[in-house]
Amino acid sequence: MTCADGAVRCVFPILASYVADYPEQCLVTCSKSTTCLKCKCKANDLGEKRPAQDRDPTWTLGVIGEAKASASSADAYFKACMAEEVSGGVPNPFWKDLPYTDIHMSMTPDVLHQLYQGVFKYILDWTSTAFNKEELDACVRSLPPAFGVRHFKNGISGLSQVTGSKRKDMARILLACLAGKLAKPVLLTTRSILDFIYLAQYPSHTDTTLKYMKDALDNYLKHRDIFIQLGLRDDFNIPKFHSLLHYVVSIQRFGTTDNYTTEMFERFHIDLAKEGWRTSNHRDERPQMILWLTCREKVAMFTDYLDYMASLPPVQSTAEENAGNSKIQITKNPSKAGQDLCKIEETHYTTGFSRSLKEYLDSFIAGRSLHENVSRHPLPFNRLEVYHSFRFDRGELGHTEAVPSSRGNKEVVHARPKKGKQVARFDTVVVYVDDTVGESTGLQGESSSSITLYGRF
Ligand SMILES: [Zn+2]
Question: How many other C-beta atoms can be found within 10 angstroms of the C-beta atom of residue 246?
């Protein structure tokens, strides 16, 4: 392998983790489909509340070996394997002689397919049946459009071919639509599953946050029988639900789930494969695609470098110059020019805006503390330019994407007063003033000084 320092070294890699979807996981680990590939839980016992004994690669190879030795026909061989919940389809698995490899342990959790397209899909199906699909759709349709929430104008029950990102948007609104309309155990189960899904995606974990995951799972296990009582399920023998039992251990062993999410690779499939293919002439395409990608990578790296250089503060910077580097973008011209302050307070429902603005401006005067003698100093102006929206960079996937995405990573926040038939829209934004906070669960336990909530942006 060519290493980072340019030297070529002989490398002996150890297979530690394997990222794949469920059918491939079963194929690779020689596990029977519909069973658990990490433990010896039988297909009919997947509803158990605790995992069974771990599968061991030596044991798996042993089962295949014994079946081979004793079976007189291919049929008998497969039957002997299946009796032990092992698939005999691959008699000589590639990992057989790999040192230090435990193929069952190496299979990583899959947030996209297991949690969103699996567990959440079931929960949505059960709860919407228990509630009433038409009524749930009506609820979803009537939600006001807001920042960070997708507005499903036709409801959600009629959607087919639902993508991962749409499922995530559904997960954000489901509980709010069901609250107060279904029995408490149904809501508790739904909430526990949603808690688990969000906790499983934390970018860092401690023993405390892993304990939250265990608690959420225990809560779900405690209340889930309500779905059987309601006649929506006969049992919980579903591999994706069973896989939840192995999440905490996997995170302890391999780190947080963003290290091995399939989402990133599926996303790259668009940039690295589909777009590359389209730019080629579809003949002997691989070298063309690689050349195209290499070129794009170099451009992306150089753009990153230029952005980095531009982000460095000048030697003698002023507040105005720094504002040019802000990640918040507004349009060149205001949505409403020269608006009267009283009018702004009225149309934006922001009573006390003038006073808050005065306090804010006063805070720049040295030696004067906030709220001190504010009212004695009138504002030197009574009109303002008003912008009805701004864009900002979420920067969630890191600012150094290998290939710049065509869609970008921008979000828009609206503060739009009522206009004719169009209803007013005021998004809520939570601003972390201090970078060191925000690792807690949600907003619980944060002090008011570290977070400022701007209700009417
Ligand atoms: Zn298991």
Answer: 20
pLDDT tens for residues 262-272? Answer: 777 777 777 78
240 alpha carbon – ligand 1 mean position (Å): 10
Where are the chain's structural domains?
Answer: 22-106, 111-260, 427-457
Amino acid code (one letter) for 95 = W
Q: Are 395 and 410 in contact (CB under 8 A)?
A: no
Answer whether 416's CB lies under 8 Å from 390's CB: no
Give residue 246 CA to ligand 1 midpoint distance, Å.
Answer: 6
CA of 361 to the centre of ligand 1 (A): 60
Using only the alpha carbons of the chain, give its radius of gyration. 28
206 C-alpha to ligand 1 centroid (Å): 23
Ligand 1 centroid vs 97 CA: distance in angstroms?
24
Predicted confidence (pLDDT) per residue in 382-428, tens digit: 899 999 998 877 654 433 333 333 345 567 888 888 888 888 888 87
Q: Mean per-residue pLDDT for 29-45?
A: 91
241 CA distance to ligand 1 middle (Å): 10
**Closest-CA residue to 417 (of 391, 388, 390):** 388
Ligand 1 centroid to Cα of residue 53, in Å, is: 8
